[in-house]
């Protein structure tokens, strides 16, 4: 590990040790009971800071708790991993993790009605309202990942045997959510451009209705799918859903938090987003938003009464199992939110970066973009069968030669050993890093005598 990254972590860890001394002190005391130990730790921190400033020293800590390695991917590398790019925490979120790391830290001032979305200190209730407004929906809840948002909707709307319309590129968690509710998925076929169109959804609805004698219970379509990151006609699909009076779940796992999303303009009845994938939040986190029409259904409160005790918990929401994101996960999500809102207004710049890199990749002969092109997202699937895979066929490391070359240049996140079809994301990278990434790909190609038509596009 780079010594400055190493010493940064060691300084943070040493400060946590000082913090623990303060935690062990009596309230109102002027300092820790063991002042000698406290002062010694302060001197240690100063020495670590000296090493950090000079870029010198040797690693003193390699494991956390004796087993966990130090994760320095974001400090030392250009990370192009698609599921990690938009989930990088902001500095504010990392600070929130430090301050609110204790288990039920969000519950310090919880009062009746004892529900997460009603807590005013810290401002969790306000955050729920801001989330709904951010998506132009009426009501929002935080959930442990997008998959739990899917699950909440399907368990509320789908009965055993009901049909749910999904994309042919739908994520596996959509399938599981439908199966868990006892439903059956029917996939919408892709057109020649690997896009889900409104007409194709309408045709599938007609097929299902003719086959089963009733309309599908739900339509679930991704705005951008996870396989190719192609943009699907969600606004057109929203209109079709209205025409057939079928609720529409908009899957925004790759959009909510990175680009503007207007639920009512789209015509969505439900919006599901991923905090850890697209909202600069720790895992597991996500958001589920809906309209007033469906709020009482998906956020229904329990009606059950204990048969012996007559206990009632009427304020608790069934699909949320009472409360969802407690502690540092939620606090980090809230801390990142101002930055997340701001960055969605810079989506055009992110697209410029994505297309710039794809252009540079296409200058490498034998390379192709499998996603729709020009790109409409920062995530892309590329094919280097005719370029880097040609080298892999004869290289002693096979496809891992490419991973080796990228790692040497401080680039990580591609699927190790992949030289045919693979995915990457440019989201959140500076132009300096985008240019570095483009130059690195072309340099690797030229090193192995793959022709590069520089600046020809």
Task: Give a structural overview.
The chain is α/β, with parallel strands linked by helices and 457 residues long. It has three domains: 3-76; 105-326, Type I PLP-dependent aspartate aminotransferase-like (Major domain) (Aspartate Aminotransferase, domain 2); 345-447, Aspartate Aminotransferase, domain 1, CATH 3.90.1150. 42% of the residues lie in helices and 12% in strands. It contains 17 helices and 14 strands. The protein has helices at residues 3-23, 35-54, 73-76, 91-99, 124-134, 146-157, 172-180, 198-212, 234-244, 263-266, 275-278, 292-298, 328-343, 347-362, 388-392, 400-408, 431-447; strands at residues 63-64, 68-69, 78-79, 139-143, 163-167, 184-188, 218-222, 248-251, 270-274, 286-290, 368-369, 379-383, 411-412, 421-425. The strands form four sheets. It has a seven-stranded mixed β-sheet with strand order 4-10-9-8-7-5-6, with helices on both faces. The protein has a three-stranded antiparallel β-sheet with strand order 11-12-14, with helices on one face. Helix 9 (234-244) links the parallel strand 7 and strand 8. Helix 4 packs antiparallel against helix 13 and helix 14 runs parallel beside helix 17 (431-447). It is flat and about 75 Å long. 39% of the residues are buried. The model has no long low-confidence stretch (mean pLDDT 96).
């Amino acid at each position: 590990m780079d010594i400055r990254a190493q010493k940064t972590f060691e300084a943070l860890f040493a400060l946590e040790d000082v913090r623990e001394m303060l935690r062990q002190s009596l309230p109102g005391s002027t300092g820790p009971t063991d002042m000698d130990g406290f002062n010694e730790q302060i001197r240690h921190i100063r020495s670590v800071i000296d090493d950090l400033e000079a870029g010198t020293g040797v690693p003193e800590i390699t494991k956390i708790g004796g087993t966990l390695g130090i994760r320095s991917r974001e400090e030392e590398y250009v990370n192009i991993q698609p599921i990690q790019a938009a989930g990088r925490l902001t500095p504010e979120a990392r600070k929130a993790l430090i301050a609110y790391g204790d288990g039920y830290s969000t519950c310090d001032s919880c009062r009746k009605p004892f529900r997460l979305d009603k807590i005013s200190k810290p401002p969790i209730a306000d955050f729920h309202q801001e989330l709904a407004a951010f998506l132009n929906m009426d009501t929002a809840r935080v959930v442990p990942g997008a998959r739990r948002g899917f699950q909440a909707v399907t368990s509320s709307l789908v009965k055993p045997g009901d049909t749910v319309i999904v994309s042919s590129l739908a994520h596996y968690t959509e399938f599981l959510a439908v199966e868990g509710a006892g439903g059956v998925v029917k996939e919408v076929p892709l057109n020649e451009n690997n896009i889900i169109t409104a007409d194709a959804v309408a045709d599938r609805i007609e097929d299902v209705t003719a086959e089963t004698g009733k309309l599908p219970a739900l339509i679930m379509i991704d705005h951008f799918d996870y396989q190719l990151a192609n943009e699907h006609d969600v606004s057109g699909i929203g209109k079709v859903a209205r025409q057939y009076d079928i609720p529409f779940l908009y899957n925004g796992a790759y959009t909510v938090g990175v680009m503007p999303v207007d639920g009512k303009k789209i015509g969505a009845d439900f919006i599901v987003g991923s905090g850890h994938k697209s909202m600069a939040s720790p895992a597991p986190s996500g958001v589920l938003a809906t309209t007033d029409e469906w709020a009482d259904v998906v956020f229904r409160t329990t009606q059950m009464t204990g048969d012996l005790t007559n206990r009632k918990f009427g304020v608790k929401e069934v699909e949320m199992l009472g409360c969802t994101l407690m502690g540092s996960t939620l606090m980090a999500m809230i801390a990142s939110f101002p930055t997340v809102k701001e960055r969605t207004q810079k989506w055009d710049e992110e697209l410029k970066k994505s297309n710039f890199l794809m252009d540079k990749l296409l200058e490498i002969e034998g390379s192709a973009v499998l996603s729709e092109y020009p790109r409409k997202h920062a995530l892309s699937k590329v094919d280097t069968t005719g370029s880097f895979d040609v080298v892999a066929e004869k290289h002693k490391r096979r496809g891992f030669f490419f991973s080796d070359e990228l790692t040497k240049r401080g680039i990580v996140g591609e699927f190790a050993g992949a030289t045919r079809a693979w995915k990457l994301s440019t989201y959140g990278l500076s132009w300096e890093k985008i240019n570095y990434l483009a130059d690195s790909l072309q340099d690797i190609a030229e090193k192995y005598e793959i022709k590069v038509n520089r600046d020809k596009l």
